[in-house]
Amino acid sequence: MSDGIILDVALTDNTEQRTPCIFVLDGSTSMNDEDKIKQLNDGLIAFENDLKNDPVAMSRVQVLLIRAGGHGEATVIQEWCDASDFKAP
């Protein structure tokens, strides 16, 4: 994102108002538990399914996933994408 503009987005085919959705996911050592990771992954899959079953969300929502870990680290794990292109990691 630069100067309030979302790069690489073609608005000519879709002029709907955009709604950014940013997930900051816990990547700290407290997530070193299969149940916690499964719950996180299940939640992302449910979010993906809900997005793709909502025609308004499909045309408006853009998603960004960031993993935040210990020691102040943050990593983008899913660049900005339209709801129609979002795939839960």
Compute the average pLDDT: 86
The counted number of beta strands is 3
Structural class based on helices, strands and sheet pairing = alpha+beta
Helix content: 25-40%
Task: Please write the string of helix (H) and strand (E) elements.
Answer: EHHEE
User: How is the largest sheet built, in terms of strand order?
Assistant: 1-2-3
Gyration radius (Cα, Å) is 15 Å
Q: What's the overall geometry?
A: flat
Specify the number of helices.
2
The biggest sheet, with number of strands, parallel, antiparallel or mixed sense and barrel status, is:
3 strands, mixed
Oligomer: single chain
Could you describe the 3D structure shown?
By secondary structure, the chain is α+β, with helices and mostly antiparallel strands. The protein has 2 helices and 3 strands; from the N terminus they run βααββ. The protein has a 3-stranded mixed sheet. The longest helix is centred in the middle third of the chain and has 19 residues, at 34-52.
What layout of secondary structure does this protein have?
Blueprint: E1 19-26, H1 34-52, H2 55-60, E2 61-68, E3 74-82
Parallel strand pairs: 1-2
Antiparallel strand pairs: 2-3
